[in-house]
């Protein structure tokens, strides 16, 4: 069998990868039903899809659905640390996906792989953090010819796309998959909350009960993280720049303050803002000995790593797996997890498959919708059709054997009329 184009760590890991992918599929009934529908209808026949995603078992099941729909798929990683090498091997050897990704790749390889998948001349893009779209616009704009549009899965990526669109630089219609109700509620809130705690515990074996956890950012991800940290017995402090989100945190019973004040009180710090330099030099100077620093925002910019390196007089790499210790001149030590990258994927396995089931079902259905409707869409950020989000929610409820009420004819008339 001729294998698709690939650059992975070890194809010999494919069998282990298949077991991992199959295990994830058990918790992904909605995406499985979408794949079965795609196999019958072949809605992506003859189209090439270039994806920049975390190379995990859950992603593999998304790509299997696209392949079942007839697409040729090329994949690059959206984070240097998150690739599961056995999954990457299985995607190439068993599922016919062109993969250019391996765990621990250097920045130059990461950038090169993005260009490689774009050189497949894709018709559709699936992005996670806007790196693929950004590379296409700034590095290889010649490869945009023939691209019908794309989908973006993350809060950070949608923010970047909206900025590009506002400046008139976005040349494609890009669907904000991240902004659907199912994605924000389940993926961002429940998925990020659980998987971030998982990553911190795997990397440190720390006890959270009785300790102070500082959550920087109270969007959907921050809310989920704060809920789960409090559920484990932690005292939770929230920092925010948005008055509405800060008020929401106050009304939910959290302590809300500035990072300057929180820095002296916190035992564990987690950034989930989508911005940069949230923890800076002045904050590091106030932290306790033994403070733990973690990030669950998409990029490794939320903790000022240059300031951390500059302040340290000694750096002990790998004091635990996925943990580096920085020693300051006064003897205080802080622990940085996963190099300041996504701790839930660097030190753990990312979101549970049951969470990604809905997110990737929305992604798969939206990809087909985009292929069918791209000619009618102008460049810019596009919302996912409401019926797609509703369909996925109904499929998930059916998989959970949950029944809900339906509107009566009289109720439908009432809701659609302004006359009493």
TrEMBL record:
Binding positions (substrate): 56, 128, 183, 187
Pfam name, any one: AdoHcyase
Top EC group: hydrolase
Cofactor, free-text remark: Binds 1 NAD(+) per subunit.
Alphabetical GO biological process terms: L-homocysteine biosynthetic process; one-carbon metabolic process; S-adenosylmethionine cycle
Entry-linked InterPro entries: Adenosylhomocyst_ase-like_sf, Adenosylhomocysteinase-like, Ado_hCys_hydrolase_NAD-bd, NAD(P)-bd_dom_sf, S-Ado-L-homoCys_hydrolase_CS
E.C. no: 3.13.2.1
Keywords for this protein: Cytoplasm, Hydrolase, NAD, One-carbon metabolism
Localisation per UniProt entry: Cytoplasm
SUPFAM superfamilies: Formate/glycerate dehydrogenase catalytic domain-like (SSF52283), NAD(P)-binding Rossmann-fold domains (SSF51735)
Record domain S-adenosyl-L-homocysteine hydrolase NAD binding: where: 188-350
CDD domains: SAHH
Record field: catalytic activity: S-adenosyl-L-homocysteine + H2O = L-homocysteine + adenosine
Any one GO cellular component localisation term in the record: cytosol
Recorded superkingdom: Bacteria
Binding, NAD(+): 154-156, 188, 217-224, 240, 275, 296-298, 344, 351
HAMAP family, alphabetized: AdoHcyase
Family under the similarity heading: Belongs to the adenosylhomocysteinase family.
Protein name, UniProt field: Adenosylhomocysteinase
Organism per entry: Nocardiopsis sinuspersici
